[in-house]
Amino acid sequence: MLPEIDREFLAEKELDFEAHENGGETYVLIRNYSLPEPYTPRACTLMLKLPPGYPVANPDMFWTSPAVRLASGAMPVAADVHELYSGVQWQRWSRHCGQWRAGVDNIQTKLRSVRTELEKGK
């Protein structure tokens, strides 16, 4: 389900994670994911959806629960869609990882991309 290199990376970082499959996709949930300023709340559950064919296929976007806002109360750019997965309401962040290198990139690359987008603070 989740490649060993990804499981090892997440465990090494001591992230509270779980992975499960649904409809051919692997869902990775990372609990107590720390958000940078200017977001509120300051921690959430982060969800990554790994598509069929991952790690050759590029995972797109990311999701948070509960919904995250900027400290001003405004909704982050391109994060205004909410979707229901496994009975939980998720905020979809329409952010796209740059060039994906099949066979090289992995969940570490995706998490770096998520952090880079979040640190833009918009």
Question: Would you mind describing this structure in some detail?
Answer:
This protein has one domain. It contains 2 helices and 8 strands; from the N terminus they run H-E-E-E-E-E-E-E-E-H. It starts with a helix and ends with a helix. About 25% of the residues are buried. The chain is globular, with a radius of gyration of 14 Å. With about 120 residues, the protein is of the alpha+beta class. About 20% of the residues lie in helices and about 35% in strands. The protein has a 6-stranded antiparallel sheet with strand order 1-2-4-5-8-7, with no helix packed on it. The model has no long low-confidence stretch (mean pLDDT about 95).
In one word, what is the shape?
globular
Low-confidence stretches: none
End-to-end Cα distance, whole Å, is: 33 Å
The biggest sheet, with number of strands, parallel, antiparallel or mixed sense and barrel status, is: 6 strands, antiparallel
Radius of gyration: 14 Å
Number of strands: 8
- The tally of helices reads 2
Structural class: alpha+beta
How many discrete structural domains?
1
Order of helices and strands: HEEEEEEEEH
Mean pLDDT: 93
Provide the helix percentage: 10-25%
Q: How would you write the strand order of the largest sheet?
A: 1-2-4-5-8-7
Share in β-strands:
35-45%
